[in-house]
Amino acid sequence: MSKFLNYLGGVIGGLSLIYVLASELLQGLDHLLNIIGIIVVIVFAVALIINGARSLISKA
């Protein structure tokens, strides 16, 4: 269960990077934050899918 919560936290963190509004000083990093957020969401979503598949296979 702890792994699930860690992966879920990673997905939520990635989504927050996508939707964060950069201040005027960091406006140049806005595009970079979006790219990093998308990559983080994809990586942690794949990790959640793999973890769920392993859990289903081990219970069968």
Task: Describe the structure in your own words.
Keywords: Membrane, Transmembrane, Transmembrane helix. The chain crosses the membrane at residues 32-50. The chain is mainly alpha-helical and 60 residues long. It has one domain (2-59). Helix content is 80%, strand content 0%. The chain has two helices and no strands. It has helices at residues 2-19, 30-59. Helix 1 (2-19) packs antiparallel against helix 2. The protein is elongated, with a radius of gyration of 15 Å.
List its salient traits:
membrane, mainly alpha, transmembrane, 60 residues, transmembrane helix
Concise synopsis of the structure shown:
This protein has 60 residues and is mainly α.
Largest sheet: none
Contiguous runs where pLDDT drops below 50 for at least 5 residues = none
Beta-strand portion reads under 5%
| Number of DSSP-assigned strands | 0
Q: Tell me the helix content.
A: over 70%
Structural class, from helix and strand content?
mainly alpha
Rough outline: elongated
Rounded to the nearest angstrom, the radius of gyration is: 15 Å
H/E element order: HH
Distance between the termini: 18 Å
Number of helices: 2
> How many domain modules?
1
Provide mean pLDDT, rounded.
Answer: 87
